[in-house]
Amino acid sequence: MRNIGIIGAGQAGLQLGFGLLEKGYTVTVYSDRTPEQLFNARLAATTYLFGRAYQYEQELGLDFWKGPGEYARGGDLDVCPAPGQRALRVQGRIQNPGKALDLRAKYSRWLAEFERRGGIVVVRDVDVDALEVLAAGHDLVVVTTGRNSFTRLFERDAERSVHTQPQRNLTAMIVTGMKPLNETPFPALKFILAAGHGEYFSMPYFDRIRGPLNCLLLEAIPGQGLDRFGGVSTAREAMERMKQVLRDFSPWVAERLEGASIVDESSWLTGAFTPTVRKPVGRLPSGRTVMGMGDVVMLNDPIAGRGLNSASKQAHAMTQAILAHGDQPFTPDWMEQTFEHFWWTEGQFITAFTNMLLQPPPPHVLRYLGAASAVSPLADTFFDNFGEPQRFWPWIASPEETEVRIQQAAAA
Ligand SMILES: Cc1cc2nc3c(=O)[nH]c(=O)nc-3n(C[C@H](O)[C@H](O)[C@H](O)COP(=O)(O)OP(=O)(O)OC[C@H]3O[C@@H](n4cnc5c(N)ncnc54)[C@H](O)[C@@H]3O)c2cc1C
Questions:
Q1: Per-residue pLDDT of the chain (412 residues; tens, 9 = 90+)
Q2: d(CA 49, CA 63)
Q3: Which residues lie below 8 Å from residue 140, measured CB to CB, with a gap of 6+?
Q4: Which domains, from first to last, does the chain contain?
Q5: CA dist 333 to 89, 155, 279, 281, Å?
Q6: 314 vs 293: CA distance, rounded Å
Q7: Can you name the residues that pair with 200 across neighbouring β-strands?
Q8: Residue 121 forms beta bridges with which residues?
Q9: CA nearest 291: which of 301, 299, 280?
Q10: What's the gap in Å between 105 CA and the centre of ligand 1?
Q11: What letters, b where the CB count within 10 A reaches 16 and e where it falls short, cover 220-244?
Q12: Ligand 1 centroid to 223 CA: how many Å?
């Protein structure tokens, strides 16, 4: 049986590890943190996993959080042309909903479970020298270390990377005491698009310690009105600024936050990163090669909620590709072909959809949203396709084809 090494115990790495373990492969996960350290870490993301990705982990027997907790089953979008003004409201259901779970609980539990199922776990911070040794000792090494590690090992793909700097300054937090969103007939992902300033999101969320709560994510266009979190150093301060932002930009939801607070000092974040697509083959000084997967090669802004979903889909596709490859060597050509297949079937749409949302909506998309505010199948399609952005293409790129969809739905 093949002997696979995986660097990084996140969504991409662990899901791949479980998939291969199930088929009898010898798999070693190298993690820079123990399960306890993963659990006690500072918040790194507030994520919603859509239906297909959620299904992959259910199939692997990895949904350990079936208890109480309601998750978003639709979306509720306000389009605001100016602070305090709502021009459009779009509500739609997600046909195949998923879950929003604290990744600290998930990764910690999964890493312990991986060992329990017979996987090998080595706790160490892997560097390039260590990678050399690991690449010599495994049939294949997959690097899944997220957005901050090994970025220089994988060359930036200039054709596929449209940004050279961060497009949003991010602030995220897990909050308690937030009033429920009573304006939708289903638990919803609440989106506010504040034209020229950025976006606000909130959703029901499962906190690692306290269970069902809510999380917020603010995506501020640098230097604009939502960009107020520079220099914030405590949870209390971050919460106060968030409340003030909402009072100024969308007073109709600010009231939900009045009695809310951040759950603890490690459950909020501010930061920014440059969305980047990288080449999947990492060449070590010796000439040996390793393969990248997840954020390390496809890093998207969280505006479309894609990164975790993409990591899951990449892990699923990679599991299939490794199994299909049998006993053949994992050459750089195989690595490139495996990534290209994912890119053309899914990755390009994930990246294009995310980058589209980072720009002001073109007139035909605004027209679609306007129609969706009155015609529910259009609204359902809009929110449902977040989980499967390839379904937006090719029509979303064409004003004519978008218009045809609007007319057909309106007529029906
Ligand atoms: C604020 C915010 C909100 C988000 N919301 C969403 C959302 O709603 N939906 C969505 O799909 N995505 C979302 N994302 C993106 C999502 O969190 C990431 O895309 C996803 O976690 C990437 O998974 P990964 O496995 O590639 O990397 P990670 O989850 O980052 O895991 C990498 C692991 O590798 C370990 N590691 C790092 N370096 C080393 C090393 N040298 N040696 C050993 N181990 C190492 C790390 O400790 C970590 O455990 C959001 C991101 C942010 C910042």
A1: 799 999 999 999 999 999 999 999 999 999 999 999 999 999 999 999 999 999 999 999 999 998 777 899 999 999 999 999 999 999 999 999 999 999 999 999 999 999 999 999 999 999 999 999 999 999 999 999 999 999 899 999 999 999 999 999 999 999 999 998 788 999 999 999 999 999 999 999 999 999 999 999 999 999 999 999 999 999 999 999 999 999 999 999 999 999 999 999 999 999 999 999 999 999 999 999 999 999 999 999 999 999 999 999 999 999 999 999 999 999 999 999 999 999 999 999 999 999 999 999 999 999 999 999 999 999 999 999 999 999 999 999 999 999 999 999 999 8
A2: 12
A3: 2, 4, 5, 291, 322, 330
A4: 3-62+102-163+274-357 (3.50.50.60), 74-99+167-271 (3.30.9.40), 361-411 (no CATH)
A5: 48, 16, 12, 9
A6: 7
A7: 192, 218
A8: 29
A9: 280
A10: 13
A11: bbeeeebbbbeebeebeebbebbee
A12: 26
Where is 246: in which H helix or E strand?
helix 235-249
Backbone dihedral angles phi then psi of residue 387, each to the nearest 5 degrees:
-75, -25
Where b means 16+ CB within 10 Å and e means fewer, 285-302 reads eeebbbbbbbbbbbbbbb
Cα–Cα distance for residue pair 77/96, rounded to 1 Å: 18
Pocket of ligand 1 (CB under 6 A): 7-13, 30-33, 45-48, 107, 125-126, 144-146, 149, 170, 172, 217, 294-295, 302, 305-309, 311
Ligand 1, atom 2: nearest CA belongs to which residue? 45
- Conformational region of residue 198, where left means phi above 0, alpha means psi within -120 to 50, and beta covers everything else: left
Give the integer Cα–Cα distance in Å for 43 and 60.
25
Q: Which amino acid is at 240?
A: E
* All residues at 6 or more sequence positions from 2 whose CB lies less than 8 Å from its CB, including other chains: 25, 26, 139, 140, 322, 327
Three-state secondary structure call for residue 215: strand
Pair 176, 261: CB distance under 8 Å:
yes
